[in-house]
Request: fold
Amino acid sequence: MTQTEPVAKKSAAKKTVAAKAKAESEVKSVKPSSKKKSGWAFPFTAIVGQEEMKLSLILNSIDPKIGGVLVMGHRGTGKSTIVRALAEVLPFIDRVEGDTYNRTLEQYIEGEEGKKGRKSIDPTSLSIEKIPIPVVDLPLGATEDRVCGTIDIEQALTSGVKAFEPGLLAQANRGFLYIDEVNLLDDHLVDVLLDVAASGQNVVEREGISIRHPARFVLVGSGNPEEGELRPQLLDRFGLHARIITILEVEKRVDIVKRRREFDEAPESFMKKYSHDQQKLQKKIQTAKELLPKVTMTDEVLTDIAKLCMNLGIDGHRGELTIARTAFAHAAFLGETVVTMKHVKEVASLCLRHRLRKDPLETLDAGEKIDRELAKLLGEAEAV
Amino acid sequence: MIAFTDIVGMDLAKQALMLLAVDSELGGVVIPSAVGSGKSTLARAFADILPKGTPFVELPLNVTEDRLIGGIDLEATLATGVRVVQHGVLSKAHGGVLYVDSISLLDSSAVSHIMDAISRGEVLVEREGLSEVHPAKFMLVGTYDPTDGEVRMGLLDRIGIIVPFTAQNDYRARKKIVKMVMGTRDAEDTRDELNMLAGFINAAKEQLPHVSITDDQIRALIQTAISLGVEGNRVDIFTVRAAIASAALAQRSDVDEEDMKQAIKLVLIPRATRMPEKEAESNEAPPQEEMPPEEPEAEDEEAPSDTPDAEAEEEQKETPDMIEELMMEAIEMELPDNILNISLASKKKATTGSRGEALNNKRGRFVRSQPGEMRSGKVALIPTLISAAPWQETRRRDSKMAGRPKTALLITKDDVKIKRFRDKSGTLFIFMVDASGSMALNRMRQAKGAVASLLQNAYVHRDQVALISFRGKQAQVLLPPSQSVDRAKRELDVLPTGGGTPLASALYLGWETAKQARTKGITQVMFVLITDGRGNIGLQATFDPTAEKATKEELEKEVEALSLSIQADGVAAIVIDTQMNYLSRGEAPKLAQKLGGRYFYLPNAKAEQIVEAAMSF
Reply:
């Protein structure tokens, strides 16, 4: 619906724009020379194992409202590799050409017209471009002003103009924001991120600047629980909690080593080998996104979800909501239009694992507990 | 300057560095070694065997964040009015070596940045309105003294080679070292040897792409990793690389047993979390569920391995089983007794400095700005500009400032404001639990609950928890300072109880733990003693099992002296007595008094009560 006449050039421009936008989404680099030749990300579809995490990311890209993924687990199990590979299989979105906030036409007009002293904008004066869903990587040392945006010092010093320079939150709008080692992030940054994630808006009130811009993103955090726990408030904000563990099957590990070696030796031909799979997955996600509004769920299934959460003693309603949403996305991903308990079953631990009340002396794994309750419930449902 | 070839001993470390020189993708080498063993000399001499002109950057421990990853060159920026970027240490090491001495003392934010740079191969500078990418692919060489504490596991995980801890050199080597240092070596010899070694390494580099490794060999290495309980899958890649580099060094085109042993020694063993199960008689493979024994099944898996060297596979006559046996042999031979304790802090006395200032110039949260020197901290830009603004007119007229571009801001030293930060460092709670006697099990359970419950809230306060149990002859750190619930659960799973009550040993160990924590930026330490206060084993007995049993007076004196020193050192303490004590003679309250702390009598206390008591103080 955001399609206006300049779209004509989109298909021709698609390739170059995509490449450009990709570089941007990583980080705008001043020197082109700093773009490394090792810029190949290991292909998503060539990653062995860790299905839980992969599925979580895919479901979030189908429905960003699921609320992000927290990935906790062992070191050296491919967390960062998977997230960095994600960008390549995500579908494209439309935005107003060159807009730092990745806004659609409507959002752009709404945002810009609100500013005082601006006349109404003629939609035909704007062109639309296609960009891949941005995946922005938040480095650990990022300062608050780079995350939220700050005054443009260069302009302030040379021309005395107070201009706003958008930060990473702007870049991440409508995309993914990835924080590795989220459990080690500075407290105040965590606070800022929570605020923004909750409101979908980034409000900057500092250094004489007052600005707000949309910042809706899927928050992806990863970390190793042995290096520090995550604050409970933050934990709860993540829609899904995927666990990632050391793969213990020897054959799989041999496979990992071999693929990695192959990739390191000749990345280009390795990418080629997987390009078909990559495109297939990208298409599957795109199709699922389109199918999502058509997916339905019966009241029985909803009742079962509610019962499950109740039996597990989960506070609040975020549990039910997340399960429902995630199950919808999962059904869509499988190309189905009716949510059944089969879908629920596959996503239940992802959605609930971090919402169980913690008992320090509990030895039973949260996932097992959920599975057990689920089995009970399913048995019950069958009997009725 | 002592050359690489002149260094005596430390053979494993040398081999490790040579492997790294051959394959930089191994990421780096970490060398744990005692003080004065020549580890840093060796690390610096590493430059000798690298191609000329390879960057070799030494990272100072007190490096600031902006110097580490890069940032704005403020003076240049202010002078020109255009942002001038200063590259950080990490990007300066690009294509070469980053050397960190005492890597275990590096503060955690610096470690995080290094980890980030390693995993990306570049540094992202996202600060002060700057957004840049600098390439930073380097080999990390780190040395440290294990008595200073451990290196963060996350960092070790990204480094390929960890040299097993080596004991002291024997006397012959010592003699040679002295001679060497005194400079009796012929410079010519040294040069020749170095040239030869460099030639070796060059040849090995050329050989590297031609070395092949069979699937069975990869499988055997992975099996070994699993049976040693090594975490993660990244290590597999390092192990295979190390084996291949070792073969390349020997100018072979196939990996052989020696190479695999070398890889196991340098990559896997130092990461072992458990001893491989010793198969006494039958040398069967370690029991591992769902581990399909080497079947040809691998062939038809959709693995993209269309390029297996058919001949190489053929040549491999040993069955994987045999290889495994061999590996086990290698492990048993190489495994020092204390292998699992290497990274644990030793009980040796560590020196401390009191640098627990909450307000500082470098780290933590920016709280306010104040006038200061540009070099003494981070410049607070906006306040600086504000203070400069009113003077612009007058300064333009000033003759000294003439000749500057009109648009440039005129800023003098007096305008500069620097940022003040507040470090939010939490408290370290050291639980010391009396695990002696019959009620020990109960106390342990309470302590465990309290530890877990404290940790659940720890994140908010940035607190850490450690747990020391004391029983038998001496106290033992069961849980080193940690923030992790998972880790606490794991480490506290098995808690032995019963035996005597070495109270003094517990206090001593707790004090040591507190001191070590201080070197890592923790300022407040609190002891939580769960005991009835009746010690009956003296420090003497802890260190010397043959010592005579201490008298009651001696015991009391010991505890008193320790308690007073601990109190004087600024450690807070509470003593919790959880036992129904019909026969109490008031030892626990007395102990609390000596420590300058408070006494709680909480019979059958719940974990929450203990936490409450600890937090209330």
